[in-house]
Amino acid sequence: MTQKSYQEIWDNCLLIIKDNVTHQNFKTWFKPIKPISIEGHILTIQVPSQFFYEWLENNYITLLKKTIKRENKIIKVFS
To answer: What DSSP string describes 48-68?
Structure first.
């Protein structure tokens, strides 16, 4: 079994997220997120600003955690 790249993992997460939020919320809050790396069991993503981070934390952290875990069960999810 080959290991997925961080880009593949994030792209698959986006497909799931897209089905669970409105088009506008997806475009506004999820499309700008960039996967940066996967080291060990940690997927690192980059958001545009501290405000963006806080908004996601307050509104979509559960969806993000569940989606990332669903896509790759070995990844640890931190907030």
So the answer is: S-HHHHHHHHHHTHHHHHHHH
With a CB cutoff of 8 Å and minimum separation 6, the contacts of 52 are 29, 32
Closest C-alpha among 34, 28, 14 to residue 59: 28
Residue 63 in tokens: 């969806």
- Of 4, 13, 3, 2, residue with least CA distance to 45: 13
Handedness of CA 40, 21, 62, 73 (dihedral sign): negative
33-52: pLDDT as tens digits: 999 998 877 888 999 999 99
Q: Angle 61-71/50-59 helices, nearest 10 degrees?
A: 80
